[in-house]
Structure prediction request, 810 residues.
Amino acid sequence: MKALARLAFLAGAVRALRRRRPPRATEDDADAVDLPRRELPNDRRAEAAVAILLVVGGLLAAGFGVLVVADPQTQLLGGVLAAALACVGAALGLASKRVVVQEVDVEERHPPRAEDEARLIEELKAGGEGISRRRVLIGAAGVACCGLAGAVVLPVTGLGPALGDAPNRTPWRRGKRLVDARTQAPLKVDDLEIGSFQSALPEGASPEDLGAPVAVVRVDPRALRLPPERRDWAPEGFVAYSQICTHAACAVTLFRYPVYEDTSKGPALVCPCHYSTFDVLRAADPIFGPAARPLAQLPLAIAADRTLVAAGPLSGSVGPSYWGVKPSSPSTHARGSLPPRGGAPWA
Amino acid sequence: MGLTDDAVDPVRFVDERLGASSLARRALRYVFPEHWSFLLGEVALYSFAFLVLSGTYLAFFFSPDIEPHQTYAGPFRELVGFSVTPAYDSVLRLSSTVPAGLMVRQAHHWAALVFVVAMVAHLARTFFTAAFRKPREVIWMFGVLLLGVGVFEGFAGYSLPDDLLSGMGLGIAYSVALAVPLLGGALGALLWGGEYPGSGVIESRLYIAHVFVVPAIMALLIVLHLALVARHHHTQFPGPGRRERNTVGNPMWPGYALRSLGLMLLVFAVLVGLGGLVQINPIWQWGPYEINRATNGAQPDWYLGWLIGGLRIMPPLEIRVWGKTLVPNPFWGGALFPTVVFAYLMAHPWIESRLTRDRAPHHLLDRPRDHPWRTAFGAAFLTWVGSIFFAGSSDRLFYQVGIDYEAQVHVYRVLVVVLPIVVFVATKAVCDELRRTRAAPALGGPPTVVRRRPDNAFEELRE
Prediction:
């Protein structure tokens, strides 16, 4: 209650302060105002308050110094230094309002003068007097400028090699074993049940390679709607897609799996950066968000020791789009029609 | 007396060597018109000063290297055993064992946020009061440039610690670079030294950009911005004695200098207080960056929200020719959108003077209501960028409140188009009404006229 009353008082005070401001005047009554104004303050209490604030601020600052050496706790350090700065800042603000002379001064503007400009133009022109082959010289100077600009700019190409075919080269080959991205342990088929998600790398690959990480998910094999030529890429419901989003290179780390199939949305891989959503049942077709290309798919096979291995290379370029990417397969965008009608989309 | 005049008169000592006393005298009498909104630019300036000071301290402890990887040993227990880069390790060490290191690092991060807030507020003030008009168009352009460079500088800063948030941001930046039509592949490879994540060159390039090149450019821009402000003197609101040809206000010495220094210390106090008491970018919670890791829990700094929003709500549109991708999707929200916004801001003073055919110099400010078209347009422009900004936070709304993400995106795609129009019409109507009634709601409602009746009671006159 008390705090509320105080707040109301403050609001009232602020409003009163604002009202005290002189009303806006037009230029006509401007001469009625006496300017410049100069008032000498004589406020001993304000001077005492400023002195106290300065001393307290100084002591707190010194206390900060002691704390840094003796007991550097982040919160304590921040609080003490902030209090020190606030005391000195408040002292200066108060001094400005109550301790030093109060002035309202008038200063004339000095806009540029036309005669100065005219003289400048004359002097600039005078510098070119007596030149007979002006055009030749201007042309030659232009050549020099272009050449120098080229000499300055072209070394920039030394910053990096061309991207070339990099997004289409990945470490995935037929027979490459899939390993857990963290522990490097081979992925065992029987450890992963339907609805599980696992980030995997090709065995022995550099973790810094955009083409390496894949998202492995297991779904009900009967629900899969892969294009005909990919029918045997998903043994026992295991599907693997490049984990690098085709929109903006983030790792696709969210797996949406329906809890209750009648009302939930279907299983999808989702990127946590911009929420591009890829339908895992239909070859990672983008079904929501900004991504316009499906994730490249990795054909899988199950080895004799019941571990997952690659059955071939990735189906397309990895990572964000640019001039040189090869789409994994043309995106269908035919939402809700499973499997896609006609031969065109998966041709 | 063995003392010379030099020793007893420091002013003369300095002046005989610099010859600057007349300049200094004029500087001390420089007049600052008063209005609270004129302090926004100063808050930005002092935040920048704080960034330079705190950043210098941080640079003593930071290593930009991302090779060789080492195994983390503590004291953050959750990270023990992780493979970390020297960059990430040095920021962890700075945050745990260097005295006041975490406080300064957090204050530095907070200062970056406050710096951009102050710049945006200052820009809005300048826009709505029309302080950008002739002869100040170039000052405005330097200011817009500072905002753009400041946003880049902030991004470069939080990309340095090589934590998960750094890596995610750099991956998105790489994709936006790649999305530049035709040149993208070359641009991305040039900046990153090959395919993302590159061999560590981007980190060292961002480091020199963040600690030297960009701050130097910003300092230069600030000097030019302020030198031109001083050349033309400050603008002022109309008022008693205030004319186009003068400035009326508080002279630099002593009142204004003290007040401004006081403001600087208060800004520092707020930043240090935030740095000490309010956690920001806890990189030990995000963990080190690996290309197969990403999280929604780590969000970028607020001033990138509009770009995140632009990237998120853009429909999946890519332009393809001959089976090649001419315009990849991140181009729209990540490159075209900010280019349009900044290009428009740069051009606004020239566009407005062309449309209004007003080529006269102006030193008296407009009240926003007195120019309904400009005010309504500015409000609509802010709403357009602002609604895209809020679209960038729809995932947090989904996680924390549970509003369906996809539905939010669909709504935002409509709002981004509709809301600016609504705001334009509403602002225009409010301005017109305020102008008509001459009401001053911020000063306590419309003026009333009272009359004393013969019986000494008062009655209100209605028009």
